[in-house]
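Bumping my old thread because nobody answered last time. Still need a sequence for this structure:
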């Protein structure tokens, strides 16, 4: 499903060069649930952003499915990302002025989907995450766990093959964190969704199929 070969990311200024990732080679199979762990600043989020086509590697190649991403221009990458990838962030990234169901609809605005179909798919996604009765609420009326459920619904509304989750339980207490993790596990097991999750939580990581550890930009496990 995902293949990285010798991927490096270097950030340069006039006076300093920082190696964020150093020759990462990684293969993720379809339907796998992979955790990425490591200390702060080790390159976890950079790796996720590169896999998610938000950032470009300085060196190396990325292949997702049968597509070699370096062959695509900017618009093609954006279309590919919208169709195949779903994103979940630690800080939710919801739009406070939009209702829950409108937030979930957002990824579908960039597809050829009617407004009625967008609403149907958004409502179905919210039912999947247990928020049937919160569709007309606004983010400011929700708890942290409920906001993360909305973020998951937004990530899955377009039925992506891959979900990239950056510390999805990091801002939640243990009870809410376990509930969010159970939703992700169900998506992985029932829908065969490939999930890559950055986490600091060993307990959450042990629930996934495989663990990759980074240290100072290099893969150590």
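Sorry it took so long. Here it is:
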């Amino acid at each position: 499903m995902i293949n990285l070969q010798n991927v490096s990311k270097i950030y340069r200024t006039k006076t300093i060069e920082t190696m964020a990732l150093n020759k990462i080679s990684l293969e993720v199979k379809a339907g796998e649930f992979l955790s990425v762990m490591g200390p702060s600043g080790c390159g976890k989020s950079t790796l996720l952003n590169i896999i998610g086509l938000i950032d470009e590697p300085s060196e190396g190649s990325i292949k997702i499915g049968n597509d070699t991403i370096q062959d695509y221009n900017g618009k093609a990458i954006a279309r590919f990302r919208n169709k195949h990838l779903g994103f979940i962030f630690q800080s939710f990234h919801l739009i406070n002025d939009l209702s829950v169901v409108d937030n979930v609809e957002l990824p579908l605005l960039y597809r050829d989907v009617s407004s009625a179909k967008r609403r149907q798919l958004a409502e179905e996604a919210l039912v999947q995450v247990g928020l049937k009765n919160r569709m007309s609420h606004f983010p400011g009326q929700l708890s942290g766990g409920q906001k993360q459920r909305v973020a998951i619904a937004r990530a899955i509304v377009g039925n992506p093959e891959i979900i990239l989750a950056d510390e999805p339980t990091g801002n939640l207490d243990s009870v809410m964190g376990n509930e969010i993790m159970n939703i992700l596990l169900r998506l992985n097991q029932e829908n065969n969704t490939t999930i890559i999750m950055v986490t600091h939580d060993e307990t959450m990581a042990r629930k996934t199929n495989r663990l990759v550890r980074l240290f100072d930009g290099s893969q150590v496990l």
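Residues 2-94+156-219 form a domain with the Rossmann fold fold (CATH 3.40.50.300). Let me know if any region looks off to you.
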